[in-house]
Design a protein that fits this description.
The chain is mainly alpha-helical. The protein has 2 helices and no strands.
């Protein structure tokens, strides 16, 4: 009986240590992913001026497109 109990305690200890190791590995990977997200976020951020210029460019392209289509229909 004592031998069975020590085997069970040993298995539970191994499982606990394995679980702690996996938790630590997941924590490290999560930190890496957070750093990558921050790096990508800084590359993707647009200022208000950039957004306004982009909107203006899109609108002018759209207006040119509409004007060319109207000329074709004539």
């Amino acid at each position: 009986m004592a031998q069975t109990t020590s085997i069970i305690i040993g298995l539970l200890t191994v499982l606990l240590v394995g679980t702690l190791l996996m938790s630590y590995i997941m924590y490290v990977r999560l930190r890496q992913l957070q750093d990558e997200v921050e790096e990508l976020r800084s590359q993707v951020e647009m200022t208000d001026d950039e957004l306004d210029r982009l909107e203006s460019s899109i609108n002018s392209i759209k207006q040119d497109s509409i004007a060319k289509e109207a000329e074709r229909k004539r």
